[in-house]
Amino acid sequence: MLKPIAFTLALLPFAQTAAAEDIQTTVLAGGCFWCIEKDFEFVEGVEDVVSGYSGGTTENPTYRTIKGSGHREVVEITYDADVVSYEQLLYAFFRSVDPTDAEGQFCDRGEHYTTAIYVDSAEERAIAERMKADAQRELGQPIVTPILDASTFYEAEDYHQDYYKGENRVITRGGIKTQKEAYEFYRESCGRDQRVAELWGDAAPFIN
Predict the structure, then answer these.
(1) Which end of the chain has less Cβ packing within 10 Å, N or C?
(2) Nearest one of 167, 162, 93, 187 to 132, comparing CA atoms
(3) Domain assignment present for 136
(4) Of these residues, 32, 35, 107, 190, which one is catalytic?
(5) Annotated catalytic, 32?
(6) H/E element holding 105?
């Protein structure tokens, strides 16, 4: 069983967490939502992570209709700001993706797999811009992740939720596997962790 990641001890370049407003939510796009959901569900202070779609203009997008819709695969993160701050979540987010890629993420190509941060206030936008600038200085490469106004979040189909620990059997390019096995096969074959480690090294929070 993986243990929660305590950002206040392990990640923080900050002296303390931000002033808390109890339970808050944020929406992030980082390529395959299975991977972002799994990563952030083990962050201490995160209460729930839901896979979904956001950013486009069409109503009720689905996995089959998302391409070309303007929507991205996203996650909605519900967190306790007394335990983990918005800054800490964004610090981890930038270092868990390839924010230099404007065409997709890892083996997944297309706008619906590109990175983005959705903000719902001027305060969140200012924090996101600062965290993006900090990450760009650390990386030494241009970061193309846009910071966008929040729009409607559409929850993805039930079978996408907690895919990384599912026991249903599915057909993959590697044969018949459980969802958990299919997720692990996908993440490895897509090269996600390898690319993140190449970019961020020891700063990558979710690389074992």
Answers:
(1) N
(2) 93
(3) yes
(4) 32
(5) yes
(6) strand 104-105
Domain coverage including residue 144:
7-162
Find all residues with CB under 8 Å of 201, minimum gap 6, and list them.
none
Is position 176 within any domain? Answer: no
Position 170 in a domain: no
Say how far residue 153 (Cα) sits from the centre of its chain: 14
When divided into structural domains, the chain yields a total of: 1
Residue 26's nearest CA partner among 140, 117, 92 is: 117
**Cβ contact 120:150 at 8 Å:** yes
Nearest to 88 by CA among 135, 55, 53: 135
User: Per residue of the chain (208 residues), what is the pLDDT tens digit?
Assistant: 333 455 443 454 544 444 445 899 999 999 999 999 999 999 999 999 999 999 999 999 999 999 999 999 999 999 999 999 999 999 999 999 999 999 999 999 999 999 999 999 999 999 999 999 999 999 999 999 999 999 999 999 999 999 899 888 888 887 898 999 999 999 999 999 999 999 999 999 998 6
CATH of the domain at 81: 3.30.1060.10
Of 138, 187, 196, nearest in space to 35 by CA: 187
**Tokens found for residue 15:** 């002296």
